Amino acid sequence: AKKGGLLLMLDLYHEVVEPKLTMEQCKVVAEQYCESIGLKNMKAVWINNNNSNVYINMCYEQDGVIMYPDMIKLKISLDTGEVIGYEGLNYAFNHIEREKENITAEKDMEDIVLSVSSVLEDVEARLVMIPINVTSEELCYEVVGKYKGEEYFIYLDAITGEEVKVLRMIDSNQGDLLM
After folding, report:
1. CA dist., res. 21 & res. 154, Å (int)
2. Which residues pair with 127 in a beta bridge?
3. In this model, does residue 179 exceed pLDDT 50?
4. Opening angle at CA 119, ends 116 and 121, nearest 5
5. DSSP letter at 112?
6. With pLDDT > 90 as the criterion, what percentage of the chain qualifies?
7. Band of the pLDDT at 2, cuts 50, 70, 90?
8. Where are the beta strands (DSSP E) in the chain?
9. Vertex 170, ends 140 and 65: CA angle to 5°?
């Protein structure tokens, strides 16, 4: 990018002949790559293997809160460990250091989990900032769990506890997708 010198996009073709790396090794490659281009405090939030290319979504983490608006997407080859794809528009447009009061939850995570654990199994939760539209974001608890064998992501407002969004994971021929 002209302003700030941020990498916005990279896309290379690479045919994977013999996959060698594990998903965990690819995650380490992604973290090291982020550090090497000056992106600090980036955490892997989504990893998917599609035809021996591993797709990893990395988000900025501030004070234990995952910032989904500040996401980058990496594609890593399973044979060489090379980063062969990068998309950083969301990070470039949205990354800022948030004010502490804007990333402090009023609802307790245990209360939030209890509110959905009677319906969901294998529940996990974390505090996240999610984009609402192009100009706004909302602090939520991301609650992940299973219902009737399907995996769901439920976003509950960290101030009011009200439901903001529900996504279901769908297995497709391109890997796992959220709908």
Report:
1. 32
2. 141
3. no
4. 95
5. H
6. 75
7. low
8. 9-11, 42-50, 53-62, 65-77, 83-87, 121-131, 137-147, 150-157, 163-172, 175-178
9. 20
